[in-house]
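Hypothesis: this fold can be encoded by more than one sequence.
Test: take the structure tokens below, design a sequence, compare later.
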């Protein structure tokens, strides 16, 4: 897997992931919406840690400056 995410993209995803996980565990979002938010947060965190987004590959998007 080649990296296809830049540092800004990774930071934004980590912040969104942290907010979603915090909202879930604080009880602000519950039920189905809470579970979906938690899953999206986990996916965002994982993709930002490995610097690779499968959807970016499908659409040919690269936010990483290196080749």
């Amino acid at each position: 897997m080649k990296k296809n995410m830049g540092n800004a993209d990774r930071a934004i995803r980590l912040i969104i992931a942290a907010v979603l996980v915090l909202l879930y565990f604080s009880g602000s979002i519950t039920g189905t919406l809470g579970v979906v938010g938690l899953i999206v947060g986990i996916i965002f965190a994982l993709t930002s840690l490995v610097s690779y987004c499968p959807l970016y590959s499908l659409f040919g998007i690269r936010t990483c400056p290196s080749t």
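DSSP finds three helices and no strands in the chain. Residues 7-26 form the longest helix (20 residues).
Hypothesis status: open.
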